[in-house]
Specification:
Layout (H helix, E strand, L loop, with lengths): L5 E5 L3 H12 L3 E6 L7 H5 L7 H4 L1 H12 L14 E5 H4 L8 E4 L5 H12 L7 E4 L6 H4 L5 H5 L1 E6 L8 E6 L5 H14 L3 E4 L8 H19 L3 H7 L12 H7 L1 H14 L13 H8 L12 E4 L2 E6 L4 E4 L6 H6 L5 H10 L3 H19 L8 H12 L5 H8 L1 H10 L6 H8 L6 E4 L2 E6 L4 E4 L9 H6 L3 E4 L3 E7 L2 E6 L8 H17 L2 E4 L12 H9 L3 H19 L5 E3 L3 E4 L1 H7 L3 E5 L2 E4 L13 H10 L11 H12 L7 H6 L8 E3 L5 H14 L10 E2 L2 H17 L5 H14 L9 E2 L1 H16 L2 H13 L6
Parallel strand pairs: 1-2, 1-4, 2-3, 4-5, 5-6, 7-8, 17-18, 18-19, 19-21, 20-22, 21-23
Antiparallel strand pairs: 6-7, 9-10, 10-11, 12-13, 13-14, 15-16, 16-17, 24-25
Helix pairs in contact: 1-4, 10-13, 10-17, 16-17, 17-19, 23-25, 24-34, 25-33, 27-28, 28-32, 31-32, 32-33
């Protein structure tokens, strides 16, 4: 693969600056350009600057970069990544793009202005330079109109979803004349370097995801107004209950911005004169009134929701006033919520006779029918449509996967009963296909192909290992309710957690021991990873709390001892063990990673030893390992002050610091030199397996057992003095001080002389004693109970 090394982004607005930031996250040098200001600001006049000063001429692009640096959630993995972004302007620096591999146009959504900029850009264009537009819906062919044939062969649409760091989808829209090899190059850059899920869309208004997503959103609003539901009702019905993200409908709109939603809707209506559902895209008076009042969402301080004195208020659209958010009381929802199986839950909801059931059936039926009507208009096949909706809007299932989940024949019959036309594609699948859009054949998933009117194998995604697929093919080696050992092939096994949020309990620990025994006998290495929503939220707090309330202190100490023993076994295991964390890897989940030979982390990994928030400390060897890593910063034999290193370990644990990216995990000591980052989370297990194989091939040797140097009483006294000052100043609670004091006692190695060398076993004893003591404290139990009941930490 030709590697992307340099890029230019033309336009430093919200989207352009965010794209530049994510390119920098991928290690790409970026030139961020925008227009030259027409006049000075008051601040520039006070500073005596002129319109010729580079600080003035580059001001707009510099402001875009600064906005990306301040973005929340963060656009850059770490602030240091911003150093890869160089700002400039179209007048002075457009010629500099000649050295770039890829130029992305991301200016205002105005066809004439885009065409004018491309005309200027072509003067500096060279053969081999790829140029794309990030338009969200303007015709790509019209944007490229008037450019040379050679330029057009290098031109395509690349629609990033905002914010590009976090939203997986990248829609690629080639022109008929675009060089296919260059399309493949951009696809590879997007998937491998930028971590994107790539789909191929046709050059139709709003492409795939926004076409279907906007239709669904507008339909939901129409139905809400017709049925008299509230904003909260709709968000309750269109969130996780039906396999959609928590932001649901209106919270998503507040995040995106109502002005953007209006623009996309108007673009759809204007450019889709032949769409039978065109009227759905008409912007309702409610939206125009909200825009007139400046209620655009988070960017303006309020939209469908707003914060008032720390409390969330929702808009009552009947009065156009905000009121405290209300919890919906929908009877059919409460009963359906108890059903774990997604298909059964959704079927029950769609058949409910109340307003919630009517809303969901009419919305779901409309979206499924609309998606089926739009293929092959918006995409060659159903696979690209389903992937676009999963990756762009975070749906659990795409529309055609949902057809299969609910039953194609059943939904078609219900549409007919409602007097609605059944889409031709659906009739075709029922008459010529197997009655489903997807089927399994010889262990592989096939999809109904519109062009050939037959089933074809779903396009393979290189570098993707699917654990469910391996399980389906019978590659499970061992299994219990908490975890499984799966054969990944090539002599590598995978320990997969599959408890709720992958908490680590007795079953998980038992399977960890089984995995080590099995790998010792029959495999060359082990990967610890899974493909759920989170890597692991840590130990089973509910079980710990119940044991504490029963006074089973020996059992608690035994569970801690088992965890310590297993993590130590991982560290010194004779074969390589590689952790593959992603999402949240917290507390015990983080501790497992700390003991592995290598960590291959997804770029979006949030690691942390967060036990102090619960009134506890890391006791499965996590505190010991952080002390080891801190001490390792001082080379052996060097007479240096150990206290700054011990303080670093103490602060990381006591403040429950969590990395906001895998890259930040290096700065916090959770990741080390030699650990790796996978930009694409879908590639994580494949990459971790490759790391494990590499260690095997190069003759992996586990580390030697060594004593740890600690700061002892002298360091402990310094930290205790600091905690006393913090407590008396009111910055921390009494219990915070108590918990932090216990952390300090372990980090410093107890009351031993400064510079003493202590064993791991000694440190583990300190961890275990402190953990059991803290768990017995009433305020720690209050914290745990509160968290289990509310999902929020308690500061007591």
């Amino acid at each position: 693969m030709r590697r992307l090394r340099s890029a230019a982004v033309l336009g430093s607005g919200v989207m352009g600056a965010a794209i530049a930031a994510h390119l920098a996250n991928a290690g790409v040098s970026v030139l961020l350009l925008d227009i030259v200001p027409a006049e000075l600001t008051e601040e520039e006049r006070r500073r005596g600057l002129s319109l010729t000063d580079p600080r003035v001429r580059n001001r707009i692009a510099a402001a875009g970069k600064e906005r990306a640096l301040r973005a929340n959630p963060a656009a850059f993995f770490t602030p240091a990544r911003a150093d890869l972004v160089t700002v400039g302007n179209f007048e002075d620096h457009l010629a500099d793009v000649a050295g770039c591999d890829w130029v992305i146009e991301a200016i205002v959504e105005d066809l004439a202005i885009k065409q004018q900029l491309l005309e200027r850009l072509e003067r500096h264009w060279r053969e081999g330079m790829i140029v794309s537009t990030n338009t969200s819906g303007l015709p790509v062919a019209q944007i490229a109109a008037g450019r040379s044939a050679a330029f057009q062969r290098h031109f395509l649409g690349t629609h990033f979803f905002n914010p590009p760091r976090y939203l997986k989808l990248l829609e690629i829209i080639p022109l008929p004349q675009t060089d296919r090899a260059l399309v493949d190059t951009v696809s590879a850059w997007g998937e491998r370097q930028l971590g994107k899920g790539v789909v191929y869309a046709h050059d139709r208004p709003n492409f795939i995801a926004n076409r279907i997503g906007t239709y669904g959103f507008r339909k939901a609003v129409h139905l809400m107004l017709e049925l008299g539901l509230t904003i909260e009702d709709v968000d309750e019905l269109t969130g996780p209950l039906i396999g959609r993200p928590r932001s649901a409908t209106f919270r998503t709109t507040d995040l995106v911005g109502l002005d953007t939603v209006i623009h996309v809707s108007e673009n759809s209506y204007r450019n889709l004169p032949d769409d039978p559902e065109r009227d759905v895209f008409v912007v309702p008076p409610l939206f125009h009134e909200m825009a007139k009042r400046g209620w655009l969402g988070e960017k303006s301080g309020g939209g469908f929701y707003k914060r008032v004195d720390g409390e969330i208020y929702a808009l009552d659209y009947t009065t156009m006033e905000y009121r405290p958010r209300r919890k919906p009381t929908l009877a059919s929802v409460e009963s359906a919520r108890l059903i774990e199986d997604p298909a059964r839950r959704l079927r029950q909801l769609l058949s409910a006779p109340d307003a919630a059931g009517q809303f969901l059936w009419r919305l779901t039926g409309s979206i499924l029918a609309y998606a089926a009507q739009r293929v092959p208009e918006i995409a060659d096949d159903i696979v690209n449509v389903d992937r676009a909706m999963r990756w762009g809007f975070a749906w659990d299932l795409g529309p055609f996967e949902t057809w299969d989940l609910l039953g194609v024949a059943e939904i078609a019959t219900r549409l007919q009963d409602d007097g609605r036309e059944v889409p031709e594609l659906v009739r075709e699948v029922l008459s010529r296909g197997d009655g489903v859009f997807y089927r399994k054949q010889n262990g592989r998933r096939e999809y109904y192909d519109v062009a050939t009117k037959s089933y074809r194998s779903e396009p393979e995604r290189p570098h993707v290992l699917s654990l469910p697929s391996l399980v389906e093919r019978g590659w499970t080696v061992r299994k219990n309710p908490g975890a499984s050992l799966i054969d990944l092939g090539d002599g590598i096994a995978c320990l997969e957690f599959h408890s709720k949020v992958n908490v680590i309990g007795e079953d998980t620990l038992r399977m960890l021991q089984t995995a080590l025994d099995e790998v010792r006998r029959n495999f060359d290495g082990l990967v610890i990873g899974n493909q759920g929503q989170e890597f692991s939220a840590g130990a089973n707090l509910m079980l710990m709390l119940l044991e504490a309330q029963e006074g089973n202190w020996d059992e608690i100490a035994s569970a801690i001892r088992i965890g310590q023993r297993l993590h130590t076994a991982i560290r010194y295991f004779e074969k390589p063990v590689v952790a593959a964390p992603f999402g949240r890897a917290l507390a015990g989940g983080c501790e497992i990673c700390l003991h592995c030979a290598r960590v291959q982390a997804a770029a979006e990994t949030y690691m942390g030893l967060v036990e102090t928030g619960m009134g506890l400390l890391p006791a499965w060897g996590g505190t010991t390992e952080m002390v080891r890593r801190a001490a390792a910063r001082v080379p052996a034999g060097v007479d240096a002050d150990l206290f700054p290193m011990a303080r670093f370990a103490f602060e990381t644990i006591a403040l429950a610091k969590v990395s906001m990216s895998a890259e930040e995990g290096f700065a916090l000591g959770y990741l080390r030199e030699g650990d790796g980052i996978s930009m694409n989370g879908d590639h994580l297990l494949h990459d971790a397996k490759e790391v494990c194989l590499s260690l095997v091939r190069t003759g992996y040797r586990p580390p030697l057992r060594q004593h740890l140097r600690v700061v002892g009483e002298r360091g402990l006294a310094a930290i205790e003095a600091y905690l006393y000052l913090m407590r008396t100043a009111g910055h921390i609670s009494e219990h915070d001080a108590h918990v932090s004091g216990r952390v300090a006692h372990v980090v410093c190695g107890g009351r031993v002389p400064y510079g003493a060398e202590v064993s791991e076993e000694y440190m583990h004893d300190l961890e275990r004693e402190a953990f059991v003591s803290l768990l017995g404290h009433p305020r720690t139990q209050e914290r745990i109970r509160h968290f289990l009941q509310t999902g929020r930490p308690l500061r007591n």
